[in-house]
Amino acid sequence: MHRFRFATVAAGLLVAVVGTLSLSVSAAYAQVCIDGGGSNSATGSGWVAGAQAGYNWQQGSWVYGLETDLSGTGLKSSMSGGLVNPCPNDVANTSAKIDWYGTVRGRAGWTAGNVLFYGTGGFAYGKVDLSSSFSTAGLSLNSDTSSVRAGWVAGAGIEYLLQPNLTLNLGYQYVDLGTASLANPTTAGSSS
User: I want to staple 107 with a disulfide (CB 3.0 to 4.6 A). Which of 55, 61, 80, 120 is the partner?
Assistant: First the structure.
């Protein structure tokens, strides 16, 4: 027997959003300075608010369904400091920001009374802004990109049925929006 149920989420959602930055720096920097280490510092902050909708079917103790969500975010991270020693006065700054993201996911779980234990996974998409600058020994590299990225999402959670069609949900999602590479054609002896 299949039972049709529309679930409305009325709880907080813990979200880990991962944007990966891969910075390609030309060989000019290796020719100018010898890599002897370096130091930098990073900070991050943010918030997530959004809406979720889905359809779930139940057969016995098993529940399966489809869900989608869309969230606005204030997720920001930045890094600054020197990257290469013993180059004097080298400066590096990188910042990343996710303005919004959404997911389309499958969900499967098992019920015990009014409690549902579930796993979820599927497609993720979102708007990512990346900015990076590096300067040393008269050379500089500045790169920016902003794009809608696609990736994947996986998670798990516990949901409690308060009344038909109303649930309380505590869940975790890991969202990976892929890798973005920044590169600049700067070569030894040139500056911007």
Answer: 120
Which positions of the chain have pLDDT values less than 50?
1-36, 187-192
Residue 28's SS3 state is: helix
Mark 138-175 as b/e (b = at least 16 C-beta within 10 Å): ebebebeeeeebebebbbebebebeeeeebebebebeb
pLDDT tens digits, one per residue of 82-127: 665 556 677 888 888 999 999 999 999 999 999 999 999 999 999 9
Q: What is the DSSP string of 41-81?
A: EEEEE--EEEEEEEEEEEETTEEEEEEEEEEEEEEEEEEEE
CB 138 within 8 A of CB 191: yes
Return d(Cα 104, Cα 141) in angstroms, integer. 37
Q: CB neighbours (10 Å) of residue 126?
A: 24
Q: What is the pLDDT of residue 87?
A: 64
For strand 48-59 and strand 3-6, is the pairing parallel, antiparallel, or unpaired?
Answer: antiparallel
CA 180 vs CA 10, 40, 57, 143: distances in Å = 34, 21, 38, 12
Which tokens in the block code for residue 49?
């608010």
Query: Which pLDDT belongs to residue 168?
Result: 94
